[in-house]
Amino acid sequence: MKRIFLYIMTAAMTCAITACDKTKALDRDTDGGATPEVPQIYDMSGFVKGADVSWLTEQEYKGKKFYDKNGNETECLSLLRSMGVNAIRLRVWVNPEGYYNSKADVLVKAIRAHNLGFRLMIDFHYSDTWADPGHQDIPAAWSSYTIDELQVAVASHTKEVLQTLKEKDIPVEWVQVGNETRTGMLKPLGDVASGNFTKLLNAGYDAVKEVYPDAKVIVHTDKGNDMNNINKLFPYLKAQNAKYDVIGLSFYPGNDEDVNDPSWQTDVTDCLANIKTLIETYGKDVCICEIGTPWNAAWAKSVMDQMYAGCKQIDRCIGLFYWEPQCYAGWNSYQKGAFDDSGKPTNALDCFAITE
User: Fold this and answer.
1) Which sequence positions are flagged as catalytic?
2) 20 to 30 A from 100, CA-CA: which of 129, 205, 235, 236?
3) How far is CA 303 from CA 256, 295, 337, in A?
């Protein structure tokens, strides 16, 4: 990597938290010196204007540069901070192939984010790779486990990752126990209807509270504009006495095949209505944990402006996290970042610059 990160970790800590091949990857992003003293976070209150930047270290290592709207090269997290982003979301996988999204990678990004005053959400996938409604695969090391053993593994993994952050005095404000878990997690054992997902969720909840007693535990599902979809999960959790604090939603409005399709307007209206219904039905705060629009859609700014304003008007909606806004030029085939093909921010996140 041509540019050495400002935030670094000791070689000893690196060896302790990752295997040798991952240690080499970590060394790419650090200079091998002493870990900097982590300052106190700037603010832990107010409406959340967040970004999931889990791809960032990989982008930087592979040479991606980021520029402000005037074309000046700027470190990405500092740029997002200047744009009004006040919270960062980071995903973690159990034993990923390679380095990225590992515990070590999460720690590097969390230190950097914390040193810039960001609030922090950790998103546990409980998989070696992506977890979503269609893919909730058990990590290879856990493949022979019973449901009881999986509960122990969930608790152990959760505590291990969070304790690594706590040892660096990094506050964690929110923790997702699972990612887009409409169908459950750690499938096929952790399905929703049987109650096994609730067992896993409760194990994760207790583990979070053991390390960070004040952290809010989030249950996250997809398609925030579709109440029929949402109802495939939360009524079961209520009946099964599941333990969680916040309902998290993903929301990707519009038609992926046609950026000129005006359906995004109905999607926004439905999502905001669903947030209100969820608060009234379950008595929980709600967070838009993921939102994104095609980067070149003429309506991208309108979606964000309307969602930002609408969510702020709902008393128990805590905020929004844009998913991987720093992605551009078709990074990993993802076209819903908030940067243009030259690596400069679009106007999609202008609403985040609005002062409280």
Assistant:
1) 180, 290
2) 205
3) 14, 12, 14
